[in-house]
Amino acid sequence: MIGGLPSGTPAAFEAGFGTGWLVELLEDYGFTPHLVHPSRCKAIASARLKNDKVDAAILAQLLRADLLPEAWIAPPPVRQLRALLRHRVALVRLRTLLRNRIHAILGEHGHDRPAGCWSGPGRAWLASLALPTVSREVVEDDLALIDALDAVVGRLDWEIRQRARSDPRVKVLTQLPGVGPFTALVILAEVGDVSRFASARKLASWAGLTPTVRGSDRVAHYGHISKEGSGWLRWVLCEAAQTAKRSPEFAATFQRIAKRRGRKIATTAVARKLVTRAWHLLTDAEHTEAGHPQRLSQPTQPRPPQGRGDRSRRRSPGPGELEDQPEPGCGPRSPN
Fold first, then answer.
1. What is d(CA 236, CA 254) in angstroms, rounded to the nearest whole number?
2. Which of residues 109, 138, 166 is at a domain's end?
3. DSSP letters along 263-274, please?
4. Given a cut of 70, is residue 327 above it in pLDDT?
């Protein structure tokens, strides 16, 4: 059936396992792939009769009417960079799990070493402990796996450093406090083409760092952050915020929000500020590279304060500002 279709035929499909392979297959046949945004395709989610045949017909109708809610298809280099960085994160998490297992075994037998167990003296201290046979076997096996992971993680770190040195955007992003080469590469890999976001607020919304809003007429209720979009981007921004909140640029903001709303919400607010500044830095760098003059933010004119009871009259936050209700919950919902 596929071979009988003319080149350039649009093909719509839902996101799922093997999406990258399907995109490459369709492009090899000369088709134009369209990735459906899963959470915005209400015609499928709300259908009373749902099976593959009906879903395919609905996608075809939406595609024909140009009403298909699409998601961005990352090009192969971006998908490969994402795979490399996520592979490194997975191995580091596995190494942490093994170390925690060793700590748990030591705790069961009343042993602890505040100076650490992973350096030369720490390994010698572990070897000198009198542990039961099975516990000793588990510790030795976990140490062997940790040593094997250290070698692989070291190789990946070298490769990541080489990629960071060859990408000028990494140097731009590392101007932000708490952002190193690895964090910068994760931001670049997850965001991809920054020009697809018209404003910093749209990027923050895609990262899931903006609050949910339920409004009607003049009443608006702000909830927790949406956690939509890239969970990996939200995770790395919150990790960077743990360091950035102690920097002079964000310390005052963090302390002010933490006193009023708590430390977790304040950390999320710093993460929102980081992604806002990252958008401005990447956009300015893109304009400069294209030969355009650097974009300058125009100061907004102050407005008179409104009454506390009418929330709809409050000025909407600008690209570099935060709402008054940043919320916690930075962990990734599901990697995309």
1. 18
2. 166
3. HHHHHHHHHHHH
4. no
Residue 293 Cα distances to 169, 175, 200, angstroms: 17, 20, 19
Residue indicated by tokens 């009871």: 309
Please provide residue 257's backbone torsions phi and psi, each rounded to the nearest 5 degrees. -75, -35
* Residue 146 and residue 245 in one domain: no
Domain match, 105 and 209 both: no
Per-residue pLDDT of 144-194, as tens digits, reads 999 999 999 999 999 999 999 999 999 999 999 999 999 999 999 999 999
Contact 322, 272 (CB under 8 A): yes
Residue 120, classed as helix, strand or coil, is helix
Strands (DSSP E) contained in the chain are 10-14, 32-36, 70-71, 211-216, 219-225
Confidence label for 42 from pLDDT (cuts 50, 70 and 90)? low
- 14 within some domain: yes
Task: Tell me the Ramachandran region of residue 86: left when phi exceeds 0, alpha when psi lies from -120 to 50, beta otherwise.
Answer: alpha
Q: Are residues 118 and 237 in the same domain?
A: no
pLDDT at 243 exceeding the cut of 70: yes
- What integer is the mean pLDDT of 100-114? 93
Q: What pLDDT is recorded for position 6?
A: 82
Query: What would you report as the CA-atom Rg of the chain, rounded to the nearest whole angstrom?
Result: 25
- The total of structural domains in the chain comes to 3
Domain with 152 in it: 77-166
Considering the domain architecture, whether residues 91 and 162 belong to the same structural domain is answered as: yes
Query: Residue 197 carries which DSSP code?
Result: -
Assess whether 222 and 238 both reside in one domain. yes
The answer to whether 127 and 80 are in contact (CB under 8 A) is no
Residues 6 or more apart whose CB falls under 8 angstroms from that of 125 comprise: 113, 117
CA distance 325 to 336: 26
303 and 244, same structural domain? yes
Q: Can you tell me the distance from the alpha carbon of 102 to that of 135, in angstroms, rounded to the nearest whole number?
A: 9
Closest to 200 (Cα-Cα) out of 237, 242, 243, 167 = 237
Same domain, 132 and 240: no
